[in-house]
Aldehyde dehydrogenase family protein (Calidifontibacillus erzurumensis), 480 residues
Amino acid sequence: MVKEYKLFIDGRWVDSISGKTFKSYNPANGELNGIIAEAGAEDVDLAVKAARRAFESGPWSEMAPSDRGRLLYKAAQKLWENLDYLAELESRDNGLTINETKHIAIPASIDVLEFYAGLANKIQGETLSSPKNRLNITIREPLGVIGAIVPWNFPIMLTMWKLAPALAAGNTIVIKPSEETPISVLELARLFQEAGIPDGVINVVNGYGHIAGEALASHPGVDKIAFTGSTDTGKLIMQAASKNLKPVSLELGGKSPNIIFDDANIEDAVNGSLFGIYFAQGQVCAAGSRLFVQESVYDKFMQAFVDKAKSIRVGNPLDPTTQMGPQISAEHLGKIEKYVQLGLDEGAKLVIGGSRPDIGLNGNYFTPTIFENVSNEMTIAREEIFGPVVSVIRFKDEEDALIKANDTIYGLASGVWTKDIKRVFRMARGLKAGTVYVNTFSMLDSAAPFGGTKQSGFGRELGMEAMNMYTETKHVWVDL
Ligand code: NAD
């Protein structure tokens, strides 16, 4: 029997006011995952009001920070106990392989929750130097109601990046998951409730971006919008939030350069670059989708890179031997195919892939794809494809690499492979990106800030920096 999922508002499972629903399908096989209550603006309004009540007058607002932290640790324990369940659910929702959900995305999400649980009672203001007859202090206070709008590529993880610091700081939250992946975040909310998080602190309103997302972004009762998604949507979010001047943090798209110098350890660079582009089926904001290879090592690197890419096993994401699962939707698959055609039309050489694999499965599968003879001006080197397609570009020397790498509207991540320590720091300084990976790619750490520059957005999630995004400084001036 097909499961039905409701909205989660004020600790209760409710139908939408309109009674509308939408369907959610498994991208691996087209099966119906569930029928989902679809929030409209009125439902979002109810959720925001519930979050406001919980913030102003519920047990959450009365709670000592250490007790809040303890509850978050309890929730983390619940999630560890349900790791297998969440991993499979996430995989069915969005097509990540079971290895990616069970060993990377879900454990990393729980790690983030534990990180912020520990910070709940360590939020500090300052005592400023003042004359003897005066005391100047600052207090860091929660903002209030946070609106979190998340994409489909890592629903639980990208929700947690917002939920955990927001709650640790004492805020409450309304989450709008992607319409492509509405289920796993609902289950996350259920587990938090079971762990004892009070009613109204977490609310989940599934629905479409231009309806429920827009309603949340423009709602006057929301104190901040934390958004992860595409750059185009980020611009709409900013416009909507500007109606009542609420702050926004935007984690947006990318076209990250990954640069292989001729003194790199080639085996490591090949493995890291494969992970950099094909992890999560290429549907990663930080993906190293522009691969710059120094001319002097080009043939050697490419031979190993192409050989290994060819051997990637594409298939059912629940099979533990599968290395690459399906793309999120048939529509997204069509978009990737259009980019492949554009690459060919613009004169790039298709080395491998570019098609749907013949694996007898009724899902949105695509083969690992490599283009070479790409110039930085081609569309496939400029626009975010968000799939398993890498554009390989040659470069001469460090200066050439830096100019080409920075020649993009994006600035999320970047990678450098070299053994030259001085070059490491020159490149780390020179690359315009929120993260510079050196001799690795796409690593994350709960303590390390993550975010972009240029049109990849602004604000930093994770680490201590995120606490600043979910608290506000109040200055208290005391005449003595
Ligand atoms: P998307 O922008 O289409 O949607 C993201 C979310 O915004 C969804 O929940 C959607 O319903 C909602 N939305 C859509 N239109 C809206 C509107 N007008 N008002 C309010 N909300 C609206 O992105 P996607 O396709 O779900 O995700 C892929 C994109 O996310 C890629 O561009 C990727 O680079 C980016 N991303 C960035 C990061 C990061 O940390 N920088 C991480 C993951 C994904």
The longest strand covers residues 134-142.
